[in-house]
Amino acid sequence: MFTILVNNRLFLKINHSFMISEKIEKIKKFYYKHKRLPSYAEMLKIFGLSSKKSIYDIVYKLIEAGLLKKEGKKLAPTTQFFSLPVLGLVKAGFPILADETRDYLSLDDYLIEDPQSSFLLRVSGDSLVEVGIFEGDYVVINKTKTAYPGNIILAEIDNEWTLKILRKDRQGFNYLQPANPRYPPLYPKYKLDVFGIVKAVIRKLRN
């Protein structure tokens, strides 16, 4: 039998974090099943409580923790609500256990720098395979007219849309470079306009 003495404030903080984690996991299960947040009445059933005041207290703590927010009179999830636990580091060489740090990471925050200026495109074709972009992948595009040589961009070249690497030749002219030796570089006959830069690639592995 072990007896552990801790600072009372630290114990309360750990207990508070555990309570929030436990409650938000139950709300997430409901959300992913019904595609919406539960009502206050439904939370009574989810948490096995009979007091509405207890539910208001829980909701207040979740808002304070940045997991939920008020939009008018309704509750809405924040990006932090969809965050996933980061359990540590794992090597891709020899198998070792990851250190469990229990940090949380929001994929929206990690992949999307500016949500107001970003959108997704699904990739068709294999012209960028050497930079790790394959057919069926989704790419996060940040809308911008400014790009630099080496950026992977969404461009309109002679009225055709494409994803390619922006390059500049010795004469200072911009052109588009595939990342697959099967395809030639693309020089504009009329015009080349930049509409966005690829910021992230999303691929779901199928095992």
Q: Uncertain runs with pLDDT below 50, 5 residues or more? A: 1-16
Helical percentage: 25-40%
* Oligomeric category: single chain
Put simply, the count of helices is: 4
The neighbouring-strand order within the major sheet is 5-6-10-7-8-9
Structural class: alpha+beta
| Mean pLDDT rating | 80
Q: Approximately what portion of the residues adopt beta-strand conformation?
A: 25-35%
What's the architecture of the largest domain in CATH terms? Ribbon
What order do the SSEs take from the amino end to the carboxyl end, as H and E? Answer: HHHEEEEHEEEEEE
- How many domains? 3
Tell me the name of the CATH homologous superfamily of the largest domain.
Answer: Umud Fragment, subunit A
* Radius of gyration, taken over Cα atoms and rounded to an integer in Å: 24 Å
Largest sheet: 6 strands, antiparallel
What is the top-level CATH class of the largest domain?
Answer: Mainly Beta
Straight-line N-to-C gap: 44 Å
The dominant shape is elongated
